[in-house]
Design goal:
- Strands 14, 15, 16, 17, 18, 19, 27, 28 and 29 form a nine-stranded mixed β-sheet that branches. Strands 2, 5, 6, 8, 10 and 12 form a six-stranded antiparallel β-sheet that branches.
- 7% of the residues lie in helices and 33% in strands.
- It is mainly β.
- The protein has seven helices and 43 strands.
- It folds into three domains: 10-164, no CATH class; 181-373, no CATH class; 398-612, no CATH class.
Length: 615
């Protein structure tokens, strides 16, 4: 539910000699209730209109939803109250209980989480500011009673503490929860003032976990800032979408392999797989790639014009104002590149702890692309939380049953195969009509001590080219299809996909994994044909998608040299490994036939597409 307060001056508060905030008391009949808190209005200049939004409360007795409990004489009974406040201002929750009391019976000794002292009378004030809600367990004892039991009725009343009526800096008592409107307005208006920093050019979102999640083009993003003049919104992907080196130690962002990959409009790069990007993003955005040595706002010495870039150092450090860098919302627990150089031969990065550092351009690390949404883009649903991210007009499809999968977008999720390893993501449409997919994370195995299926790449140290007959290829085109996929899904897979086996070594372009040179004009002759393969160096979805503590190093398809294979390690970097004697994780990759169609779902992680072969 939306709630709104019209903006008014701080001085207007003095004109209220008493502001009485109504309290609605509701008994929790049936367990779970959702209700509007209160409305106060006063018709005058700069009128105030406050509606706080939905509050929810859940009472459980012995693990079952209930609003009553029976307490025997001189015994203790325990129950749990879960209260949720979706507002971004502190509200006052008053828990109370009522007993069917008779002479000599007093229900009054209440203890539990959040209570400083046991109260002597009903009516326990609980202050609840968390937007995610919290649960508290209480114990009640019937004292001074007869031998009879007492039935207690549980309830809550809710209201705004009069002492908490101070205005935040933006002049609003309660922020308006917008579910639709221009993306910049909705995001800023729904962020607490404590998580906003305005440097007079951009309004930055800061803190530990603000509600700034956006789902667009098959990927989860975080809103980072809103330009005060243009009202464009800068986004960065939540996870590392790929892994690649920055350059060969000769270029900062302009002219680098990184800039090329991000703005590559073919199926091999990022921009070419972004949905209708001309309608959503600023294609001539300005990216400040100035070398800096402090946290201060950088001068505009080095500006690069591109559709896609990376976050710079200033934008990253600004995001955790008011909190430690390790807790800042942009620290995803992985290693990833920033835009800002630290010297003529190296660039800045963020490591798994959220710490910033510098290293050579030729190092291979995680990539979190950044874009600027146009001011005209509209939010049509969602509340910005990770479980309900904002959805954008033109990218919020429903009723997709019967749609061919090859019309969908890189990053979208599908259910494919059996068991716990049945979540996959679209990679690209590299072969016309087909849909390349990969497992959303390396195959899991509860029997393995690491928790993942592991394998050597080959049984010899000199075999660096993948095939359906080498160690890992035999598994993927045999046991994997039988035990992890099953016949119903296996029939949807194209039998003979071409897998490109070009070598990518230190300081060389991602294009060499598929082409003979960096022009990308001629495909490499080093290929193999198989039903199932692996992701190659620099390919979309080849990044890590969890914090480092949940990851495993996994094999790529691409040789690093004549004696080693590129692997993505648990931190999100690419390193190289001997093909034999090392057991790493596996992310099966395959191409689905052109007549695979969607039967349900919306393509998000929580609601993946279900698919079948069209009749």
């Amino acid at each position: 539910m939306k709630y709104k307060m019209k903006q008014f001056m701080k001085a207007d508060i003095s004109k209220f000699y008493i502001l009485v905030v109504g309290i609605i008391s509701l008994l929790l009949i049936g367990g779970f209730f959702s209700y509007a808190m209160f409305t106060v209005s006063k018709e005058k200049d700069n009128a105030i209109n406050i509606v706080t939004g939905n509050l929810t409360a859940l009472v459980q007795v012995d693990g079952t939803e209930s609003n009553t409990l029976t307490v025997d004489a001189n015994t203790i009974k325990t129950f749990t109250v879960t209260l949720s406040n979706p507002n971004n201002r502190i509200a006052r929750f008053n828990f109370y209980y009522e007993g069917s009391l008779s002479d000599g019976v007093k229900a009054g000794y209440l203890t539990g989480d959040g209570l400083n002292t046991p109260p002597a009378a009903p009516g326990i004030n609980l202050e609840q500011a968390d937007t995610s809600g919290s649960s508290n367990t209480y114990s009640i004892k019937v004292i001074n009673s007869t031998d009879s039991s007492v039935t207690i009725t549980l309830g809550v009343s809710v209201g705004l503490d009069y002492n908490d009526l101070s205005l935040p800096e933006n002049g609003h008592l309660f922020e308006e929860i917008k579910t639709t409107g221009p993306v910049g307005d909705v995001i800023v208006d729904n962020i607490s003032t404590g998580n906003i920093y305005d440097d007079e050019t951009d309004t930055f979102i800061t803190g530990e976990d603000p509600n700034s999640y956006i789902w667009y083009s098959g990927k989860l993003w975080r809103a980072v800032s809103v330009n005060n003049e243009e009202k464009t919104v800068k986004l960065v992907t939540e996870w590392n979408i790929s892994t690649t080196n920055y350059d060969d130690d000769s270029n900062a962002f302009a002219g680098s392999y990184m800039e090329e990959w991000l703005n590559d409009t073919t199926e091999d790069g990022f921009l070419g797989n972004l949905r209708d990007y001309e309608n959503f993003i600023v294609t001539d955005a300005k990216w400040n790639a100035t070398e800096i040595t402090s946290d201060s706002k950088p001068p505009e010495t080095t500006i690069v014009t591109d559709a896609v870039g990376l976050l710079n150092y200033y934008e990253y450090v600004t995001s955790y104002r008011g909190t430690d860098y390790s807790n800042g919302y942009l620290n995803n627990g992985l290693w990833w590149w920033m835009l800002t150089p630290f010297s003529t031969t190296g660039n800045r990065y963020v490591d798994t702890n959220g710490t910033t550092g510098g290293t050579y351009f030729s190092r291979v690390g995680g990539v979190r692309p950044s874009i600027n949404l146009k001011s005209i883009v509209q939010i049509v649903s969602g509340d910005g939380t990770i479980d309900n991210p904002y959805r954008l007009a033109g990218d919020s499809d429903t009723e997709l049953s019967g749609t061919l999968l090859n019309t969908r977008y890189s990053g979208e999720y599908i259910t494919f195969g059996t068991g716990e390893n049945n979540l996959y993501r679209i990679v690209s449409h590299e072969t016309s009509g087909l849909t390349k997919i990969t497992s959303a994370e390396p195959l899991k195995d509860s029997v393995n001590a690491m928790g993942f299926v592991t394998s050597a790449f080959s049984n010899t140290s000199s075999e660096t080219n993948y095939s359906s007959a080498n160690t890992i290829g035999t598994f993927l085109n045999g046991e994997y299809l039988t035990n992890y996929v099953g016949d119903n899904y296996s029939n949807m897979i194209e039998d003979n996909t071409t897998w490109y086996l070009g070598t990518v070594g230190d300081g060389t372009s991602y294009k060499l994994a598929k082409y003979t040179d960096v022009t990308g004009n001629t495909l490499t002759s080093s290929t193999t044909s198989a039903k199932v393969g692996l992701l190659r160096y620099g390919e979309l979805m080849s990044g890590q998608f969890n914090g480092s503590e949940n990851n495993v190093t996994f094999w790529l398809l691409t040789p690093h040299s004549s004696t080693s294979i590129n692997v993505v390690n648990y931190e999100g970097n690419i390193t190289s490994s001997s093909p034999s004697g090392t057991m790493y994780g596996i992310r099966p990759t395959l191409s689905l036939k052109s007549n695979v169609e969607i039967t349900g779902g919306t393509g998000t992680k929580s609601d993946p597409f279900t698919v079948q072969l069209a009749s």
